[in-house]
Amino acid sequence: MAASDQLRFHEFDEAADLLAATPDATTTSVSERQSHVALDVGSSYDENEEGDESDKTELLSGQKQPPSFWTFEYYQAFFDVDTYQVLDRIKGSLLPLPGKNFVRHYLRNNPDLYGPFWICTTLVFTLAISGNLSNFLEKHGNTSFRYSPQFHKVTIAGVAIYCYAGLVPLALWGYLQWRKGVCLNVASYTLLETVCVYGYSLSVYIPASVLWLIPVSWLQWLLIATAMTLSGSVLVLTFWPLIRLDSRAATLAVLTIVLALHALLAVGCKLYFFQKPLHDYPPPFLKDGRAV
């Protein structure tokens, strides 16, 4: 019995006196106090946690340094693009529309080198392979013809395509930078954006180089004219807003050089890789009169 009396709840005398003096007063139970305390602690904890996270974010952002030129992370940003973006940019280069600037509507401050690199690489191999096949189909009916792969065409195609896709936009970017310092009205894209525009503009030549295998001269030249018109339109619509505010002579000179180099690449590839033999040399003979 003594143990059970000790376990019973005993009211304090002071609490009883207070309740007797003020019977209308309200009391707060221990559970309610604990709940209020728990809620207050939780809210303060969340505020402190958010403050700590914001401080850490600011600290990390302040200490973060741009990647070095010799690191892999520096070049990784140039290839930060997905398949849908590359396909959308290829479609934009194949179907240029007036009023749609390629840099503003397709690149959107995120130029890449992934698409231009593979477009140029694919074009190199399609030119070389199509050129070899064209030579083979042209001389296939000749009994004295012996086919030998012309691997040097891969090297020539690579030098021509990569030099055009790298050196020409570099020269144009340098010229626009110089004109921007001389004439305040002239603007300029970044070097990466300029290279990206030139790289995607060559995508139309990939199907054209395959269709050049059709041994019809007028059709081949029609395909060249179509490809030059489409790809040249991409360049004109992209760079025209930058150079139109320059002097008339400078504007005409830039457009003429850009289109002339573009046409020179297409015509040169057609004449070199898909040229018809001018002479059919007789096969060499031995002294006994037999052909080799």
Automatic annotation (TrEMBL):
Transmembrane segments: 113-134, 154-175, 182-206, 218-240, 252-274
Biased composition annotated in UniProt, kind: Acidic residues: 46-55
GO cellular component term of the entry, any: Golgi membrane
InterPro entries: Yip1_dom, Yip5/YIPF1/YIPF2
Keyword Transmembrane helix in record: yes
Membrane disposition: Multi-pass membrane protein
Tagged with keyword Transmembrane: yes
Domain of life: Eukaryota
Pfam families to which the protein is assigned, alphabetical: Yip1
Cleavable signal peptide: none
Gene Ontology BP annotations: vesicle-mediated transport
Molecular function per GO: small GTPase binding
Subcellular location: Golgi apparatus membrane; Golgi apparatus, cis-Golgi network membrane
UniProt region (Disordered), positions on chain: 40-63
Keyword tags: Membrane, Transmembrane, Transmembrane helix
Domain Yip1 span(s) in chain numbering: 94-267
Family affiliation: Belongs to the YIP1 family.
Protein name: Protein YIPF
Protein's organism: Alligator mississippiensis
